[in-house]
Predict the 3D structure of the following.
Amino acid sequence: MASILTNLFDGVAYGMLLFVLACGLAVTLGLMNFVNLAHGAFAMAGGYICAVLVNNSGWPFFAALPLAFVGSAVIGIALERTLYRHLYSRSHLDQVLFSIGLVFMSVAAVDYIMGSSRVFIKLPAALEGQIDLFGVGIGRYRLMIVVICGLLTLALQLILAKTRFGSRLRAAVDDPRAAIGLGINVPQVFAFTFAFGCGLAGLGGALSAEILGLDPYFPLKFMIYFLIVVTVGGSSSITGPFLASLLLGIADVAGKYYVPKVGPFVIYTVMIVILLWRPNGLFGRTAAR
Amino acid sequence: MTIALETRNLEKSFGGLRVTRDLSLKVMQGARHALIGPNGAGKTTVINQLTGVLTPNSGRILLEGHDITGLSVHRRVLRGLSRTFQINQLYADLTPLETIGLAVSERMGRGGDWWRRMGTRDDVNAEIAEILSRFHLLDVMTELTSTLPYGKQRLLEIAVAIAAKPRVLLLDEPAAGVPESERHDILAAVAALPRDVTVLLIEHDMDLVFSFADRISVLVNGGLLTEGAPDDVARDAQVRAVYLGEAADA
Amino acid sequence: MTALSDVSTHAMAIARWRISEVAFWVLALACAFLFPSRYLIMTDIVRLGLFALSLDLILGYAGIVSLGHAAFFGVGAYSAGLLALHGIINEPVIALVAAGLVAAVLGFLTSFLVIRGVDLTRLMVTLGIALLLEALAERFSDITGGTDGLQGIEMQPILGLFAFDMFGRTGLFYSLVVLFILFLLARRVVHSPFGLSLRAIKNNPLRAAAIGVPVNRRLIAIYTLAAFYAGIAGALFTQTTALASLDVFSFERSADLMLVLVIGGTGYLYGGLIGAVVFKMLQELFQSITPQYWLFWIGLVLVVIVMVGRARIHRFVLFVPNLIIRQLAGRKAAVAVPESDAS
């Protein structure tokens, strides 16, 4: 019983991490209908920034996390302004080719600079080990992830629901043409959101180094996971991707623990079935476009 | 006279919005029937249900007495119902020769031939040649469709629908967007359609409707307002109020 | 009637063999004789060309974007490997066809998943299927050999006459013959009414259905045929290298394939073949500069091609090659690669 709850908690932590990693992608896809397979590269960038700061420069872990966010966001906005924005109106094939190209470049570049082996980030002692909660063993690190990602999710929800920027963003997602008509600067909203999404991915990348492992092949290995979150969750709100992330996280942890040999098999199968059943995602808009 | 195309109590809603309301329509064999109505009356939705792009929520569609409500788009075409589009739906990278050739091949049931090269069947070629020359497309038959002038594209749009040899043809605003200089060709092509083809014309242009149609149905808010001979419809006070009045304003 | 003869002449003109096409194949054959020290890489190019030809059938002609075409390559590779390893079918040509058929069956079954939905769904589903097969192959490592791959495959002589030699001479000529035969078949198919209907579907599925084209049935047919081709390419890989390992399913293989086709241009059959030559030459070049990091250069090439614009690349940067391409494609249009494909 206790091990089930521990696994459930691990799954929730993993799912929330996936959400932070992938929610930027949901916006990219929902807002500009852009297929960005390179989203994981921004997560990897954040992870390596954090690793270098902590391991080589001796920064405290919690001080390095915001910089992972900022660093990835800066890289994101630089690429958005120079490259991505030219491709919004192109075919999906072009977008796919372009972003695969970026993934390949990032993989080889990181391999060249940082080496190909897995990188570990030195964690503060406070985050190591488990605490015992009503007989259920809970990893401290995972508890921190749940807290941080939970707060971030709440903050995102508040930003989207309450702020002026949030309402502009929602308007732009719902109907870009109408939003432009209302005087909303959609390209600007998008550039900012893109950068913010990359920042979140970077933060997620830093947090996930301990759990998912950080090496140059990170963007390729987890590409499918991010895509699952977005396509299964739909891109019309953040609730959909959030629920999809939790489902995926719990299913993946449970799969690896209880049926280790067919774990990935189950996930891909479920993804294909869901996509066939609801092509716009489990929680997506159902109306025909 | 027999009924070529009929709808019985057709209903279609999008969300809470009823866009087709209890529509029962009869188009007689050989008729030149026009379906008119102000913008937003639901004319295109009706066409999409007739051709199978949309499925009605309830009600039936009959083609020459056979229920076709559940048939897919391409099967209705093979049954003899074809259409033109209000906005050209052509193959940008294909030539008129290929476009018409494909339509003729499909109608003859040879579209799935994967071993035979195009142009090797004389019966297909003869029909392609006949249609291309009837629609004045012979001289441009090897040009890419995307490079043709708009009037020629509009002719091709009608020619493709004819190549399917329909017994019932749905014309969705055939003259829409055609410059005045090329308009005559389009109107002549429409007027020259063989009499045994039943035509349902969806149109905004009242001149075209009254010169072409022998029967008119008026659609308002998804339902049938009135129906009758052109003179009667033109005199109808209701129609004048909701439709012609608005057209005069526009 | 002059219009009639005009129509049949023009309709048949597209499918007529051009001198440039004959020259292409003569040149290919000549290379096989001229560079005896390069058999292995030339075999590699031929296999890749066949694989790219397969993708061209669905991407270039039918407009289906696939991120997981390696699935069929992998199934063909393992099928051929297992048939040879367990001595089920010893004659390579029969085994080749059998492996292709296995891939075709898989293609047929999965085509029902792929024809539904929009681009993004198709990307995900094709990618998912390839990953799923990779996971399966890893899971059943007692059959597939897991990460080590199939070991100890020994190939019997082709048709009982031509033994595979250590220099790869037999392998090259064998691959070349297979490629040529399958190319002829593909050429027939794309110039038939069936092939024309695929181009119509890619251009405008709405209109294709409105003239009576059974869109789904045609897509299923071409997807199955493409899977057959990819399966044959995979089987050739196993037969000529005596290897089959998990990486036959890898995403990188599917992605590289897209690059091959994009380099050569889609929708005229020779794109995959020309792309394969250029790709392998680039690979040789980059690997001699930075052996470990050639992925970077591949990525860069992809990004540059897309940023400059695929059509523009083919129009300007490859001006001379494009003249050849136009000869081979035989289109009146200046551009063999429409910018808008698969949108």
User: Anything to note?
Assistant: Chain A has one domain: 2-223+243-263.
